Amino acid sequence: MPSLRTALAASCTAAALVLAAAPLAPAGAASAPAAPAFLDARQMPASSTPWSAGKVTKGLPEGGAFCAPGALPAKGTSHRVFRTELDTGGLQITTVAPTASRAAELVAKLRRGFATCAERVERQYPGTEASSAYHGRLAVEEGAYVHSLDTRDQEVGSTDIHLFSAGRDGRTVTYVQWGRLGDLPDAPVQGFKTTTRTAVNKLHR
Q: Residue 168: phi, psi to the nearest 5?
């Protein structure tokens, strides 16, 4: 059985980028809305070693949105992976829904995944203790919500902490993930909230 840490690492691994040539818009057609902007490496929470950012890649990452499997569609979705030189990683997934109401449903689906993540982890990975927590709503655009997952491998004794957020600007939804070795008291919750505000604010700046 794969370890929980392997699953977490897989969720921050970029899939190969495959782009088809886009057809030219017919004369007089309305311009397509600009693609949502992504976080830069410098906008991730402070770390002891610098962050680097991968390319913005179309589609879902390998492993999808950890803690919210199946919550986001592949269509209309892009992602970016973030890394440091040490055992810290991050991920942003952004999707444009057909309507604002559908986008609100996606945020709700992400939040349900976050809230029930610990229970699913303990079922899937026997010997792992897990706890989920909610860290509040952020007043940015249509709102953003911050959650965490704290896990402990009872056999090895190692601990991992992950922070997650889901936010929305109109039809556009963004998911942000941060994770490293350690416990919740070690996590930059306030810094992650700042990162989340920035992520939502710059979607359609």
A: -145, 140
DSSP state of 170: T
pLDDT in tens, 144-180: 999 999 999 988 888 999 999 999 999 999 999 999 9
Tokens read off for 50: 């610098």
DSSP symbol at 70: T
- Name residue, tokens 């008291």: 185
- Whether the CB-CB separation of 72 and 60 falls below 8 Å is answered with yes
- Asked if 88 contacts 45 with a C-beta cutoff of 8 angstroms, the reply is no
Backbone angles phi, psi at 160, to 5 degrees: -135, 145
Give the pair of three-digit tokens for residue 15. 């899939």
pTM over 0.90: no
Q: Are strands 57-58 and 52-53 parallel, antiparallel or unpaired?
A: unpaired
Mind giving me the DSSP string for 90-147? EEEEEEE-SSHHHHHHHHHHHHHHHHTHHHHHHHHSTTEEEEEEEEEEE-STT-EEEE
C-alpha triplet 65, 66, 69: angle, nearest 5°: 65
pLDDT digits 0-9 by tens, 58-84: 999 998 999 999 999 999 999 999 999
